[in-house]
């Protein structure tokens, strides 16, 4: 009987050791992924800062790597070009939209969810609206960045449409609704930001314009 107890204890210890080993491996993988994400974000941020300050034509991979405090080889491990690095912020913004939309209550009307997300995007304290707008201008003024943005756009904006389709019981591949809705809301957001930056509106802030844009969309954009 004593032998059976020893065997049972031995098995339990082996299982515990295996569990702890798995936990350590998962923890190490998580830490590694966080470090990679931080390095990617640092490189993208450096690329955006340099592009805003110097113009994309004057930016090099070496300069971006130096600004981020890493080697040029590290830069090329994460990005194939300076344009891709600059536009990484755009791709991340799309993922932010997706995460915010997924976080909304499942039974919330889709228009309410989208308005909440758009308002949160334009009022986020950690992402100054003016900085975002400057990046938009930079992309629009550079043929190389614009061409690269189209590639990224085709790859990632579908993600928003997929979430809308999930929440509305539609199909992004066969139904117009999710595709039309996410394009309309994105355009409304850009129009609001452009009008706010023009300084010609009496709105108190971009949030007021975004809410007005969403109201008009809900009403079918009635003629004034």
From TrEMBL:
Pfam families reported in the protein's UniProt record: TetR_C_14, TetR_N
Domain HTH tetR-type: 37-97
DNA-binding region ranges: 60-79
Highest taxon of source: Bacteria
One MF annotation (Gene Ontology) recorded for this entry: transcription cis-regulatory region binding
Keywords, alphabetical: DNA-binding, Transcription, Transcription regulation
Protein name, as recorded: DNA-binding transcriptional regulator, AcrR family
Organism lineage: Bacteria, Bacillati, Actinomycetota, Actinomycetes, Mycobacteriales
């Amino acid at each position: 009987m004593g032998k059976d107890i020893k065997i049972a204890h031995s098995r339990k210890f082996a299982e515990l050791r295996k569990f702890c080993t798995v936990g350590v491996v998962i923890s190490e993988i998580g830490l590694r992924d966080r470090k990679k994400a931080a390095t990617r974000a640092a490189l993208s941020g450096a690329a955006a800062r340099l592009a805003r300050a110097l113009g994309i034509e004057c930016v090099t991979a070496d300069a971006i790597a130096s600004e981020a405090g890493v080697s040029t080889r590290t830069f090329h491990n994460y990005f194939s070009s300076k344009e891709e690095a600059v536009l990484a912020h755009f791709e991340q913004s799309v993922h932010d939209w997706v995460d915010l939309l997924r976080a909304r209550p499942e039974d919330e009307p889709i228009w309410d969810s989208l308005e909440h997300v758009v308002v949160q995007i334009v009022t986020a304290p950690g992402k100054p609206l003016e900085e975002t707008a400057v990046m938009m201008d930079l992309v629009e003024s550079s043929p190389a960045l614009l061409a690269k943005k189209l590639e990224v756009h085709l790859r990632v904006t579908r993600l928003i449409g997929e979430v809308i389709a999930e929440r509305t019981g539609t199909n992004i591949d066969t139904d117009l609704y999710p595709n039309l809705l996410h394009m309309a809301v994105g355009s409304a957001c850009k129009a609001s930001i452009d009008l706010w930056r023009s300084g010609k509106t009496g709105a108190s802030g971009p949030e007021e314009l975004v809410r007005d844009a969403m109201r008009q969309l809900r009403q079918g954009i009635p003629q004034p």
